[in-house]
Amino acid sequence: MSLRNKSILVTGGAGFIGSHLVDSLVGHEPERIVVVDNLFLGRDENLADARERFPSLVVHHEDVSDIAVMRRIMEEHGTDVVFNLAVIPLPTSLERPAWTFRENIEMSASICELARQDCFDTLIQFSSSEAYGTSISGPMDEDHPLNGTTPYAASKAAADLLVLSYCRTFGIDTSIIRPFNNYGPRQNDRSYAGVIPLTIKRLMNNEPPVIHGDGKQTRDYLYVTDTANAAIEIYEHTATRGRVLNIASGREVSIEYLVTSIARYFGYERRIVYDPVRPGDVKRHIANIYLAEDLLDFKPSVGFDEGLKTTIDWYKKYLGSRSSE
To answer: Which strands form 32-36's sheet, in the order they lie side by side?
Structure first.
């Protein structure tokens, strides 16, 4: 399977992972790339590089859950492949739980229905490691129980089951990528920001870094371009159809190590603030990536320390330029 000369639609394509996926797609010489993003978290500026390299890029600021609008967009552009990254993020689910759950389910249901109606050929659905909850024993493979601890996690698990049900019942052509904790340039640093951009921002503002809980909780971090490239490889390898694939580093990093590493890069030697643990925070995340290694020959190309340095350098430049405006 090749993306060359294909018409590709990326929902959530102006977001963090979505915009990096669009960047990677450009190199595969598709006929058309269309982004649908309502800018809840995404930003048009995230697509600046892609626009420069692919001037015909089309962006629609629409709601993915609106099936009539999505059908019109797909018909207008003759869509072949959909990469579905449209999502309301985890922190939102702590403030607006029912709405987050409904939105995430409805967006995936809309895409599934359009696949069932043959509006496009192949769906690559983006899941989340949060669907697993805390690791029960050792690295989590794809058979690990779905035991999410937040409404966001529950919505992602439910969406995965929905997609697989459409695959098994209606025969839609689909694979599910289940990324673990992504990091890199363009990760949201405003409302609902992640720990890496938040920590960098605090240090740039001469504020102490903050750790929620004791910092011993772990995550499996993967540099965002590795995830984007893996999603394309999942499309290209038809042996992935009807399956879920973990995409991660297979390495466990504690939040304490992460925050102190960022602080060390800034030369910060003062205190770190320990706040109460956040609701639903998982204790341990580490992936078993044997299936991706077997089917895709997947291996992360960017090491954690290298990727973290690149990320910090990008945010220093980006936040510094924004503060001077």
So the answer is: 58-60, 32-36, 7-11, 81-84, 122-126, 173-179, 244-247
